[in-house]
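Quick one: structure tokens for this chain, please?
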Amino acid sequence: MVTKKILSLSWLVLFLGFPCRAFAANSGYFTTYSHHVEKGEVELMFMNDYTAPSKFRKEEGQGEYFSHMIELEYGVSGRYSTEFMIEWFEDKDKERSKFTGYRWENRYLLLEEGPLPFNVMGYVEYEDLHPETRFKMETSGWIDPPYEEAAETEEPDRERILESRLILSKDFGSTNVAFNPIFETDIKDATTAFGYSLGIIHHSGHMNHAAGKEHCSCQHDMKDCHCAHCSGTSDKCDCKMGGSIGMGFELFGGVGDSKKFDIRPSRQEHYLGPILTYHVSPRVMAHVQLAMGLSSASDNLVRLNFGYEF
């Protein structure tokens, strides 16, 4: 019942906002993060995955399912943003749904281009999730560990994880390239699972953050203009992202943990996914990805996200 109410509310928010400026702080990626932060930006994201499970998971009795997440982001400053997320899934084969928990994420721009040829951002996220959680914000560790695991005396009712990333990101004109090493530490036993995400995306009509004088003029001359891609005109604040298209891809996966760091695709999840984004209006963005599993332990996903910027 709770899940159905959340789902209905999400679609209502999306419907009301659809006719109405959106450029996600992750630049349109699904798993990777870039360094972009805009002060004063409030953005609502509704994220949806359809998953066809791997043979490994099918043998465990898992069928096809939908997973969802609602994310609310606020740009506290030009360097710091915070986000709160809730998630749930719907198992279409077993005809059941389950609310699985929440995440609280914080990102801070540590170093802009200068001493280094790229921007460096720190990322910390607290996760309080049910062990059945299924939404793939990232992948890490092992699906089938190459070592003996200690038997649990009882099944934990919650997973409390501290996830951290080092976000390395650079804009080349209208193209962004970003790489994220991922570390997920179990607060209970301090085991850390390792992952990675690499992305590249090009936006047609996208302002050049590094050298775009229009963008700089927008930020300095029009203090009340909360638009990351303002046209920079002297008399009004016009956003330039409406109607623009972005294309790119992501490569992401897990590379073991603090017990055994290794790359063994047959025991790990690895994905490659093309991305297509479209700014329906200056405030609304939609993006889609087909994430193809590169190993026998990987699922296949169809991902569809909607973003609305207030």
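Residues 1-24, 206-215 have pLDDT under 50 and may be disordered.
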